[in-house]
Amino acid sequence: MRDTNKVFHLAIPCKDLDETVEFYEKLGCKLARRYDDRVTFNFYGDQVVCHLNPNSIDPSPKMYPRHFGITFLERSEFDQVLNEAISQELPFFQEKMIRFAGKREEHITFFLIDPANNLLEFKYYHDPEMAY
């Protein structure tokens, strides 16, 4: 299980700071810091830093193997983020779907794509023991 006294940190590239801030704030992430070359967000309790590096943007992103996101332990929180993404008209890379239907690891998931083609996955497992 997660220790509550630790914060996970992830650094990713971005191509434009303003559009990056707009996307992540629409997603509900709080801007923590902004510098000339990066922005830092509170990403659902963890830290995501978007470094300005337009030359390292993946022009053809794929869901697997490179993405990041949140595994929700409460279905209501998953639904809330999904509904917010829809209402904010955030770009979906993959609409809501079911993976591993009928198996213990069955879960619902969707993917968003940020302005720098970073893929974000949001999912909820029906069996909470499958979250790890």
TrEMBL record:
<dbReference type="Pfam" id="PF00903">
    <property type="entry name" value="Glyoxalase"/>
</dbReference>
<dbReference type="InterPro" id="IPR037523">
    <property type="entry name" value="VOC_core"/>
</dbReference>
<keyword id="KW-0223">Dioxygenase</keyword>
<dbReference type="InterPro" id="IPR004360">
    <property type="entry name" value="Glyas_Fos-R_dOase_dom"/>
</dbReference>
<protein>
    <submittedName>
        <fullName>Extradiol dioxygenase family protein</fullName>
    </submittedName>
</protein>
<dbReference type="GO" id="GO:0051213">
    <property type="term" value="F:dioxygenase activity"/>
</dbReference>
<feature type="domain" description="VOC">
    <location>
        <begin position="6"/>
        <end position="125"/>
    </location>
</feature>
<dbReference type="InterPro" id="IPR029068">
    <property type="entry name" value="Glyas_Bleomycin-R_OHBP_Dase"/>
</dbReference>
<keyword id="KW-0560">Oxidoreductase</keyword>
